[in-house]
Amino acid sequence: MNNFIFQNPTKLIFGEGQIARLSKELPKDKRILVTFGGGSVKHNGVYDQVVAALSGFDFLEFWGIEPNPKVETLRKAVEVCKRENIGFLLAVGGGSVLDGTKLIAAAAVIEEDAWDLVLHPELLRGNIPFASVMTLPATGSEMNRGCVISNLATGEKYAFYNTYPTFSILDPTTTFSLPTFQRACGLADTFVHVIEQYLTTTGISPLMDRWAEGIFQTIVEIAPKVLSEENDYNTMADFMLSATMGLNGFVGMGVPQDWSTHRIGHEITALCGTTHGQTLVIVLPGVMNELREQKASKIVQMGERVWGITDGTIDERIDRTIAATEEFFRSLGLATRLSELGIGEDVVEAIVARFRERGTLLGEQLNIDYKLVDAILRQRM
Amino acid sequence: MNNFIFQNPTKLIFGEGQIARLSKELPKDKRILVTFGGGSVKHNGVYDQVVAALSGFDFLEFWGIEPNPKVETLRKAVEVCKRENIGFLLAVGGGSVLDGTKLIAAAAVIEEDAWDLVLHPELLRGNIPFASVMTLPATGSEMNRGCVISNLATGEKYAFYNTYPTFSILDPTTTFSLPTFQRACGLADTFVHVIEQYLTTTGISPLMDRWAEGIFQTIVEIAPKVLSEENDYNTMADFMLSATMGLNGFVGMGVPQDWSTHRIGHEITALCGTTHGQTLVIVLPGVMNELREQKASKIVQMGERVWGITDGTIDERIDRTIAATEEFFRSLGLATRLSELGIGEDVVEAIVARFRERGTLLGEQLNIDYKLVDAILRQRM
Fold first, then answer.
1. Spelled out in words, what is the top-level CATH class assigned to the domain B179-378?
2. Residue ranges of the domains in chain B?
């Protein structure tokens, strides 16, 4: 096991009716900027609950943080923070709203431009404290330091790390109005977040392995009910909890991590605007197949414990595990090939060119170069 | 799933050589009291590492916090804190040293006696900040708010809740000198901590079920290597991590909890001085058997996922699961019957009388009264 330091101070406030607790958790002596996405929270009752809880507080609203939040939008919110002397940020919506808010929080306390901060994290000088009402189980942003920001002008998409949300309120009933595609992407996103922390090698930490597999098993078990839209409370609560636990550090203690699927998937989103979770399930089978020797022991363990594959040669078990994983993603109604989304060779070439130019090396062994990215993407066409 | 609020701010600093980080983590502007147990840390190198890291700090030492820490001892440390203007406490040793230190931390800032604080938690008025170097995987005290304090004069033993350690340093190599019996009790303690949060009913949270089962599976998998004293680093690291994760709130989110085995076990320790982990494995099979109908679905699920029991009637599966659990404890070299430790009917009667007098009701349904305690203990004689 690798040495590690773990600390996650976010207060997780979980359950039906908990949005009303905003009145207890928010600071009374600061001007609050509440950030929103495109308006779905006005249709599912979340906005009304938030405004009711904020009665008596000094707050402003900022609307329009889009999926894959764009720095062009976030800059406007940074201006509001500076002009209006904002002392606390509350993100209400999905992972994109919170991701964008994490950058706003940090960019509002420096002179430099928000995109410079993404490119040069050494500019970070603290932040305006922020919290969230999270309505979409997917990114785990509600209990981690990370965010992913896009630049419309340059077609780039990068991760940025600020600090943790002070608190996050998760009410599973807010997920009841989610469309099927977003549920599917949230399940897929959670699954792949965990696999990035899991699919390296066996024998480092049996406990972390079991906990990662526990999230896989849970996601596989609940997926049909999540997608059925019967909105069983315990099922949607477990979906929400799984998404949070999948990317808050709990399953990544002392173990190596990969993250190549995300890095490649981000490029697809940056160039084509494809939904994040959708990109991941296209890329992942390619990573598993190209790295099948290096990751053999872990793929076989996953096959046995998650998909029940207990016989055959090592190669057969690896093939079947990759196929079962892809089949699970297809059962969610997601595409697993670039061609299904009309993404062609020009995009693959553009992505490979980017990795070649940057000289980026990916994966837990930093051995995935642009040539391997090319091989991974070509088998996903 | 029940509504819940989760927040655990402890900084976990994990790995070989991490004790040296004390010099970075401890406050330079406060007088520190370092608390110790009986002296084993002087033989395994831990004391020397701590003192080296504390070079340049203003610190005093307090020795002699015993297993099942006694309020009579802790009062002396409270006096030292008050007299010497102590501003930070560092517990070095096992769970008992840290448990005792949690009470010292709270009792040092009030006028009332430390035992009054245990009996009347409403007297809590904050605490001196505290941290730990944890050398014994067992109690999970290094990442939770709880402690269990004994009173020698009255023969009582109760839980008390303060706040979380600021940080805890866990170096798996510090476990290499642990005797076999302490390793066995630590494995058993971890197992039963998790079962108290697990063995209620199914269908509340598949994820929390999987994570609890993940700790059981890990403990069962690593136990032979932990006991073999070959001191494989990754094995001992996973033992240590499992103990911490077993009682830091991570597997108990939104699910009902039992804790009757602990409450009954504490009475055995209070009256006979029996090691905590040892009492738990004696009591647990009795709780499982007496509550077999109420807990049927969970016992069957545990049997299937942890012990591989997949056929037979419900009753047979329950019997086999209880037997497999007891057999696992015996494989650790622990006694599972009161008679094996020379504990007889007089002790059982004294414990039952205590529960009758107090009118205490135990278990997740608060339906374990003194008569059921009597039945549980009589079948463990």
1. mainly alpha
2. 11-174, 179-378
